[in-house]
Amino acid sequence: MKLPQTIREYKTRGDKPQNLRLEQASLSPPRASEVTVKIHAVSLQYRDLLVVHGRYAGARGELVPCSDGAGEIVAVGAEVKRWKVGDRVCPNFALDHVCGDVTEETKATALGGNIDGVLREYINVPAYSIVRIPDHLSYEEASTLPCAALTAYCALLGPRPLKGGDYVLALGTGGVSTFAAQIALGSGANVIVTSSSDEKMEVARKLGVQHRINYKKTPNWDEEVRKITGGRGVDHVIEVGGPNTLQKSSRAVKDSGWVHIIGFVSGGEHGIPVETAIWNAITFRGLLVGSVMQFEDMNRLFAARDIHPVIDRVFTFEHAIDAYTYLESQKHVGKVVIQVSRD
Question: Taking the model in full, what pTM does it have?
Answer without folding.
Answer: 0.95
